[in-house]
Amino acid sequence: MNIQKTHNEWSSRLAFILAATGSAVGLGNIWKFPYITGENGGGAFVLVYLLCVLLIGIPIMIAETMMGRHTRQNPIDALKTLTEESGADHNWHYLGWLGVVAGFLILSYYSVIAGWASAYVLKAFVGSFSGEDAAGIKQIFGDFVASPIQLIFWHSLFMFATMWIVNRGVNNGLEKAVRLLMPSLFVLLILLVGYAMTTGSYNEGLRFLFTPDFSKLTADAVLTAMGHAFFTLSLGMGAIMVYGAYLPNNISIAKTSMLVAGADTVVALLAGIAIFPIVFANNLQASSGPGLIFETLPLAFGNMTGGWLFGILFFVMLVVAALTSSISLIEPAVAWLVENRNITRQQACVWAGGIAWALGLGTVFSFNVWSDVKLFDRTIFQLLDYLTANLMLPIGGFCIAVFTGWIMHQQHSAQELAMPSQGYKVWRVLVKYVAPSAVFLVFLHVVGVL
Ligand code: PHE
């Protein structure tokens, strides 16, 4: 079925850029990037991440958007159409399924963490951070995540909001939300960087982020950096493909992809630059894990002029940024359900959101009652994160690169991308050779073959 019958197109190039940026910029940039950078020793990790964005992320983003627009279908059907069209093995359509499953798994924990951010809006509002020192702020976070009931409440609220928005259709209201969100988020991050400059540890923070110390770079850190490039750009699971399916024909996919990736990277780096000086100035642990931003930024809000208001605004924006990402996490599943199962969009949202919500309980309990339950040395949350960001997304991305580089007819990709021939050649080399071999080498490195 042609997707345009069921969904609208984006109204303009800007609308697509906003939606794709909305999907890309989220918890990955502000919550995850700083804490995994802290856990993996800083500079060298950041460098690998940036290289991955440039050499693997951007070419695959172009490929994924192109596959979506070429077929104008949800990822599962898109792959069916593409395999038929290229006379390829029909097993390729499992790639679409891999993406839909990855989306569910990610959404399940994404919603829990976005729930934390939502709870922090309230905490900021009632003035919980005001005048607190590092120990006090840490305590607030510790008490909060120790309570399954509170986490479930906020997780449910966030999931409900996601379902509600997706039910209204991804391009209704989303454009406006992101148009407002991006500039405001940017301004607030700059403001936080300004605060970071006053902490006395600004240079130390910058050094940590940008001076590579390769002795700290383990094989697993390289995999995490690469996986994060996929995660933060929303690649490898069909989110960008499904947005590409709504993209009008006359728009340059390559240029928009580079813009989106650029904006995403800037937001992540700003978050890092804001957070690490606060970490060092207060003798906090850079490697303290998923709580990092919740243990540092409230300190800034609790102690700067206007911090009450900025704290509220910041967490509100973090929640909105998470929402514009979470809707893209279930959109592939919802689009597939609506187009294949003959159910309404509303029913599809309830099913998809309900399953992800239930799965999310595993993450909720990872931080309290099940914190000792470990599989492969990881809590459920850590396992889900590893499975999706470090394995499923890179595998999905690898397959997308191989498919567009080796299997899809070249004239189709050339026509769809309509790039200057030089640019097209560069993209093809990246997607055909560089990206797949890079992913493959990182995997070999992790299993110890290299
Ligand atoms: N890119 C989003 C973020 O950084 C997360 C995401 C991953 C969204 C995969 C869609 C698909 O927060």
Summarize the structure.
With 450 residues, this protein is mostly helical. Helix content is 77%, strand content 0%.
Could you characterize the architecture of this molecule?
Helix content is 77%, strand content 0%. It is built from 19 helices and no strands. The chain is globular and about 65 Å long. The protein starts with a helix and ends with a helix. Phenylalanine (PHE) binds next to α2, α3, α11 and α15.
SSE order and pairing:
Elements: H1 3-6, H2 13-24, H3 27-39, H4 43-71, H5 75-86, H6 94-125, H7 134-145, H8 148-168, H9 174-197, H10 202-210, H11 219-232, H12 239-244, H13 253-281, H14 292-303, H15 307-340, H16 345-366, H17 380-407, H18 410-417, H19 421-446
Helix pairs in contact: 2-9, 2-13, 2-15, 3-11, 3-13, 4-5, 4-10, 4-11, 4-13, 4-17, 4-18, 4-19, 5-6, 6-8, 6-15, 6-16, 6-17, 7-14, 8-15, 8-16, 9-13, 9-15, 10-13, 11-17, 11-19, 13-14, 14-15, 15-16, 16-17, 17-19
SSE pattern: HHHHHHHHHHHHHHHHHHH
Query: Helical percent range?
Result: over 70%
Give the termini distance in whole angstroms.
45 Å
- CATH class category label: Mainly Alpha
* CATH architectural group: Orthogonal Bundle
Global geometry: globular
Regions with little confidence, pLDDT below 50 for 5+ residues = 1-6
Average pLDDT, all residues: 92
Structural class: mainly alpha
Number of domains: 1
Q: How many beta-strand runs?
A: 0
Biggest pleated-sheet summary: none
CATH topology: Hydantoin permease
What is the helix tally? 19
**Beta-strand percent range:** under 5%
